[in-house]
Amino acid sequence: MSVLTLIALKFAAGLLLDRLLGEVRSFHPLVGFGNWAKGVEKRVRKLGDRRLDGLLAWLLAVTPWVVLAIVARRLHPLAHWPVDILLLYLALGGRSLTEHAEAVAAPLERGDLSEARRRVGWIVSRDTTQLDAEGVARAGTETVLENGNDAVFGALFWFLLAGGPGVLLFRLANTLDAMWGYRNPRYLHFGWAAARLDDLLNTLPARLTALTYALLGHTRQALTCWHRQAPAWDSPNAGPVMAAGAGALGVALGGAAIYHGRLEPRPPLGLGHAPDASSIRGAIDLVRRGIMLWLICVASTAFVIEWLNA
Asked: How far apart are CA 161 and CA 195, in angstroms?
């Protein structure tokens, strides 16, 4: 059995577990990691509030768990199987993303704006209390597209590249960026390392995600939006993902939104009709089909290599 075939089998097993079981309900390891990271931050901040302190905190928060994953894989000749599959399953959020997005699309479709606002507020950081139906649909569609990279394709990429320890590194870095990567007085300097390291780890996955969206939708329009709109976006990775995704869906996203009580202007994304409940479901379908495309590509490549080596 070739190395790629081994990876392909684990890849498929992790995706299957995510599809069957979804997100861990009672105690998600990322919640425990978040508490660990808060403790690390509290202790390191006593040293000051400089960028090097933030880098030290990042290393102390992430490194022990990645080293533990590497060690666990070597405890037994077959230990890499359960360790890699379990870590991929825990890192993936495909089913959870679908469930949360559908919980926004369903009330929005039946005209229950209050419930749609409440539900979308669970999955976005912007203020949702005053959003109209179009604003709710815009927020929901954008977060599905962006999290398609963070919770699915980025994790799959790092698993293919470095197995269980790689996907763990990516997911923990992504979590720390969500905790510390804010441009506010508290985290402007301390969170700099978390934000930059997440950007670095996401550089290739984000562009592969954007390409995946483009291939599965309005390809030419998606590539055009990616090329013209992504450079204006504040995030170097979210820009390509959301611009290509919006272009692939043929929907107009972006525009001003309220974050932490302040209206922030944002460039336009995509091209086409205004978003609605069908846009959210379109984004869900784009992610689902993207997963199948990645699985087919990995499995086909593994099959060809096995055939050539036979």
From this structure: 21
